[in-house]
Write a structure and sequence with these properties.
8-stranded antiparallel sheet; 6 helices; 8 strands; alpha+beta
Amino acid sequence: MFLKIRFFAVVFLVGQVGLASFTRAQSLPATPHTPDLLGIYPGMPGPAAKAQLQKLSSTINVHTLSPASMGFSLTIPSHNRETIAVYLTQEPNDPFVWLIERGQNFDQANPMSKDALLAGLHQKYGKETLKWDKGGGGLYLYWIFDQSGKLLTTADQTLQACESGQFSLYMNNGLPQAPTQVEQACFKSYFAVKAGFNLGPNGMLYSYNVELVNLPYAHRAAMNTANAKNAVDQKAQQDLIKRANQNKPTF
């Protein structure tokens, strides 16, 4: 048992060092500074994004997510509780933003209307590219951008099925071996602002969620991470085989 534990510790240490020192030859491309969400944009360096997020509150500190490399968040408690979360690329990439989320829940005494939220979104981003009304109070709007940050007037409706939450798992656990056609479209083209409305009576909002994500950028970062982990795993396996071959018994 001691030997097994000792071997695991060696492999873990090699893996951590190897991943951190893996070549950054496949560097991430530069990204446009617009669109942004609260001054934070995909491709923004993590420390700068954290400083920008902290500017939203002088009394509440930004907290790291778990694990800490995943990103950080700020929750502002009030009658209308608000949470902003920022997600970062993983090693061997430097920590850059790939996803920003903002959500708010409303107290009946301090409501917000759908029209007021729409006015703010249109002022910031312009006319939405896609609209999906699921019925039952669920409404989703999409602003789709090309990789230069230019807003598109039309886009493939398949992109409405892109899920940044699912990609958060891929960023940490590895990309799917056989991505679906929808996932392939998302990894290729989904650079978007998505706004979800949880509608109540008379056009009032129960809550909303707005996210800004660049999946092509995130996919490239996740590929770098996967390649680094594969290289570390292969090196550990080669070292194991080498030690096993040198461990000859005496007869």
